[in-house]
Every structure is written in C-alpha cells, then in structure tokens.
From TrEMBL:
Entry protein name: Spore germination protein
A Pfam match: GerA
Native organism: Anaerostipes butyraticus
Entry GO CC: membrane
InterPro entries, per database record: Spore_Ger, UPF0353/GerABKA_families
GO BP, sorted A to Z: spore germination
Family the UniProt entry places it in: Belongs to the GerABKA family.
Regions that span the bilayer: 294-316, 386-405, 417-445
Keywords, alphabetical: Membrane, Transmembrane, Transmembrane helix
Length: 503
C-alpha cells in the first residue's frame, strides 16, 4: 500500500476503516522518527474496540493526554460508531473529526494527538500542543522608557493572544494558514475587518499562498519572499517585536502577519515615516515626542550624509570654511599619508567591524568590545597618524546618529547609503553630495507599498494632507488626531467623534 509519493512528498489517501492499514501507513510515513509516540489499546466494556493513539514527543502536554484522553477511554464504555461515539469522554474542547491522512499526519507534526478507531474511516484530532518557549519577556530591540514592556516570543498562539488582549473587538480577524512545503510553518494574518482594505488583505493572502518553497522559519524570510521591489535598500515591510505597536498598526487599518517560531510581527502597508516612530512617542507628552522625532530625522541625515559631507569639504571646498577651522583641519591632518576619502573609509570600515563583533559576541562581552575596541582603535590610529582626530569625531557622530533611529532594519539602509554618498562626494565634491541625496529621494518617491506611497504623507493629497502631517515629524495632541492615516479603508478614517465645529 504505497500512498506516499510525489516530488514534494505530498500525503494522499483517506483514512481506512481497517485500523491495521492506518497503523502501517503512519509508521511508514513517520519511520525513523524516534520522537514519535504510538499507543495501541482496547476500549469498551468487553475491550472489543481497538484504538491507536499517536503524537510527537516534545510538542505535546503528556499529562493532558494521559488524564484527558487515555484514562477516560479506558474507564468508559464506548461504541465505535461515529454517530454513537461519546464525545464527552474526551476531556478537550478543541477536537474534530478528520478523514484525510494528510490532516492526520500534519496534525501530529503540529503538536496534536490523533486517535484512530478500528472500524471507522475517520479519526479524532485533539489539540494537545505544548511547545517549549521562553515566555513573554521584555522587548530588547525596541526598548521604551514608558509604556508596556512585553514582547513577542517564538510561539504563534501567545503572540496572537498578546494582540487580542489589547483589541477586544469581534471585528479583529485571525486567519491561520501554513507556508512551506516541508516546514509547514503556521502563520496568522491579523486585521480589523472594517478598517483594513479588503483588496489589500486579499492581495497579501494571495501572495503568501503563491510562495512555493521548502521552508520558512522567520518573518524576515517571509518578508523577502513577498518583496516585489527587491532592488532597494529600504525595507518594504515593518518588523516589530512589540504587541502594542502591532495593535496600533491594526487600528490604523494595517495588516499584521505573525509567523510561528519568529519573535517579530510583520506590518504592512508601510511608509518611511513609521520607521521613525517609537512606541513611547504615544505614551509621552506630545511636545517631548515631537522633539524626539525631530532629532531622529536629523540623525538620519547625519547618518547618511556626514562622512560624505566631510569628504567634499576637506577634499574639494576647504575655502568655504572659516579660517580658524581651516587651520585646525590642516593641523589635524598633518602627517596623515592617506587622502581624505581613504581616511574616512578606513575608519568607517573599522567601526563596522567593531559593530558586527559587538553584536555576535555575548551580551556583556559585546558591549565591552564595542567601547574598549572603539577607544583603543581610534586612539591608536590617531597616534600612528593613520587618521586625523576630526575623522574620528565624524565617524563617532555618524554612529551615534544611526543608533538613535528606533528601527534596526531601516538603519541598515543608512549604513550602506553613507558609502554611496562618500563615493559621490569623492568624485564630485558638494555637487556629488546634492546629486546623491537627489538620487536617494527620487528612488524613495517612486516606491509604494500596496498602493500607499512610501513617502506618505509627504505625497498626501487633498484634505487628508492636513491630518496626515499631525503624526509625521510633529506628533499632535491626541485630541486633534481625529482621522486615521491613508492605510485605512475609505469611509472608516475617523477615529474620534466630531467636535462642536464639525471637525
């Protein structure tokens, strides 16, 4: 009986009334799996009915199986006909009948327990999942001074529960499916029915369904499979580990994709300005939040353009500097054998090496390497006359500016763009500086995410433009933020009641 074939090893066939055939089939499909637990026993008053229980060790709650399934079956009188089968003896609310072998084997590999009964062409699958997890911990990548501290972990159901806890609305929908022909990774598509545009939800679902790959293990992998414009440095999806940020995105009409085994949720559509927004912007006073955002936008400009600007000024246009500063620059570069551009690139590459080393090393040791390594390398390079002190200051300011941006993936684009600006300035000076920024902005303005311009609300039109800028560089008081952004379905943009003036 060969019911298991095909290039992608797709399971075929229905469950047989002959229990022995089902046992042979399961053992053949899952052979050499030492973590597969199988139990055969008889139930009923006269012990006349054979049953076959199968589950995967390490993915289930063994105590629940013993107390809620095996023990009641052995103690109670049962009949093998489905119509007369006593559901009450199985002490689990999450159970269902299945007739396909594919559903049975997939259920076992997903942490469920499957019960085959002799003489029945269907089986019962009972939810007994108990995955190992590290619990709900503090967000380490998106730390906030005020507001919630919890973060997602690698368990899908815990992550959806953290979002559901914040939005107690029946219109919050959770569509759970699988992706990956071999990994069969669970993922959940979350959206609020009357806020998220139906066309966007359907497009996202269709794009995920079209993915044909053997395995997807993280939200980052799914993001790269979904990207249509992969020839861009800027992320087209927002990854976050914070449930409150995910819930806020859903309330704006966005869609969240949560992948099992990943501590990050993916939010879409996305615009450039969402990467400058931190969670505590909305838990702090609007004046403080606005000031912090202005600093972040300035930091983005410094992280991309400061090294190139220094190369352009020092290499091509020193005459625009005040005389005291020019003399200080010449004095600092005295004895340095390299041109300015080589000097800057050497220090930037040295800092990138230190940055990668600090990330890969264990926590406390990584921080020590970053601080001590930066001090030692910088001081030694200056004393050896390989670089000037001004270059060390420029590189340090660039690094500090990049760290102030709250999204690490978005910062990765700036890390590469600064080398592009350095090259442009090394060739054309200040002309290259402005041309480089012009090329970056032209690229940004032609990007869009599921119909939403990437540079929204800069490109907003009509009446919505006034409201859009209330949560851009400036964060207006909540009492004035009466409309949701462009992500929301048309006709559902108002989130606060109108005031006496009809606004």
């Amino acid at each position: 009986m060969d019911r298991f074939h095909g290039r992608d090893h797709k399971l075929i066939g229905k469950i047989s009334e002959n229990l022995q055939e089902n046992i042979i089939y399961v053992r053949e499909v899952l052979k050499d799996c030492s973590d597969l637990i199988q139990k055969e026993f008889h139930i009923g008053k006269e012990k006349e009915t054979r049953v076959y229980l199968v589950y995967m060790d390490g993915l289930v709650n063994v105590d629940m199986i013993q107390e809620s399934i095996v023990k009641p079956l052995l103690l109670e009188e049962t009949k093998k006909e489905k119509a007369n089968f006593d559901w009450g003896i199985i002490e689990s609310a999450d159970r269902k009948w299945i007739s396909e072998m594919e559903d049975a084997v997939t259920g076992v590999l997903s942490g469920n327990t499957v019960l085959f009964i002799d003489g029945m062409d269907q089986a019962v699958t009972i939810s007994t999942r108990f995955f190992p997890n590290r619990g709900v911990q503090t967000a380490d990548q998106e730390a906030a001074m005020i507001g919630p501290k919890d973060s997602f972990n690698e368990t899908l159901r815990i992550n959806t529960a953290l979002v559901r806890r914040r939005i107690r609305d029946t219109r919050l929908k959770v569509v759970q499916k699988q992706v990956g022909t071999r990994s069969r990774t669970d993922y959940a598509l979350m959206y609020i029915e009357d806020l998220a545009p139906e066309a966007v939800v359907r497009q996202i679902q269709d794009e995920i369904d079209e993915i044909c790959v053997d395995g997807v293990f993280d939200s980052g992998m799914l993001e790269q499979f979904l990207e249509k414009k992969y020839r861009t440095l800027f992320p087209m999806y927002q990854l976050t580990q914070r449930p409150d940020k995910t819930a806020s995105g859903l309330m704006e009409g966005r869609v969240a994709v949560i992948v099992d085994n990943s501590p990050m949720a993916m939010l879409l559509p996305v615009t450039a300005n969402v990467f400058f927004q931190a969670s505590d912007d909305y838990y702090n006073r609007w004046e403080t939040a606005t000031f912090a955002r202005i600093l972040r936008y300035l930091s983005a400009f410094l992280a991309v353009g400061l090294p190139g600007f220094y190369v352009a000024i020092a290499g091509f246009h020193p005459e625009i500097l005040p005389t005291p500063f020019l003399l200080a620059l010449v004095s600092a570069r005295e004895g340095v054998p390299f041109p300015v551009v080589v000097e800057v690139i050497l220090m930037e590459l040295a800092f990138e090496l230190l940055r990668e080393a600090g990330i890969r090393l264990p926590g406390q040791l990584g921080g020590t390497i970053g601080v001590v390594g930066g001090l030692i390398v910088g001081q030694a390079a200056v004393e050896a006359h390989l670089v000037s002190t001004i270059v060390v200051i420029v590189v340090a300011l660039t690094a500090i500016a990049s760290f102030s941006i709250p999204n690490e993936i978005f910062t990765g684009a700036f890390r590469l763009l600064k080398f592009f600006l350095i090259f442009m300035c090394a060739v054309w000076g200040l002309y290259g500086f402005f041309l480089g920024f012009l090329a970056v902005f032209l690229h940004l303005f032609q990007l869009e995410s599921y119909g939403v311009p990437y540079m929204y609300p800069t490109t907003a039109k009509g009446d919505g433009k006034v409201w859009a800028f209330q949560d851009y560089v400036m964060r207006a008081p909540f009492c004035r933020m009466k409309l949701r952004p462009e992500f929301t379905r048309k006709g559902a943009r108002r989130r606060q009641k109108e005031d006496e003036n009809g606004r």
